[in-house]
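so my prof wants the structure for this chain in the C-alpha cells format not the other one, which i didnt know existed until like an hour ago. anyway here's the sequence
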Amino acid sequence: PYINISSGYQQLGFGSSGSSDMFSNLNDKFEPGNSYSVFITDTIHHGQITTVLLHDYVGKTDSTKGQIRFLNLSPDAPPLDLWAYLNAGANGFKVSSNCAYIPNDFNSLINAQTFSLIDPGPYFFIAAVAGTSDIVLQGQLYIPGRSIITIYTKGYVAGTGTNAIDVGVIEYQP
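here's what i got, hopefully its the right format
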C-alpha cells in the first residue's frame, strides 16, 4: 500500500513498533506524482540493515492484464530466474531473468523498478538458480486483472526457521 510523502528531499526512519529507536534511515529526493517502494533487507543479527528504494514505473491497468515484478531480497541467494506456468500447465515463461540480490546488483535494481504485463489467472511460479533447473522456491498465486503485484524473496538460503528463505507477495491498489 502506498502512503503520501511530501516531494523533495526527505529522510525516512525505520524502527520497531512502539519504540523511538531507529535502526535504519533513508535520505532521498522524492518527485511529485511518482510512486516508490521501500524494502528493508538483511537483519540486525546479520550485522547490517539495507534499505532499498525503488521508483515504481507502473503502467496503465485494465481488466485484461495484471502487472508483476520479482525482487531478490535474500542476501545469500544466488541470482534467480522466475518462471510462471498458467493453470500449472507444462508451458511456462520467464517473468524475470538472472535477478541477483538487489542491493549488490545495479542491473537487478533497475529491472526491479518496472512491472511486466501478465494475463490474469492462476499461476504456478518457480524461482530457480539462474540458468539452471535447480528450484529454490515454488508456489501458486492467482493474478487478477488490474492487479499490481510484487513477488519477492526474503530470508536466507542457509537460514532455518523464521530466517529460512521464503517468498512474500505484495498486491498494490491501482
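also thought this was worth mentioning. The chain has a mean pLDDT of 88.
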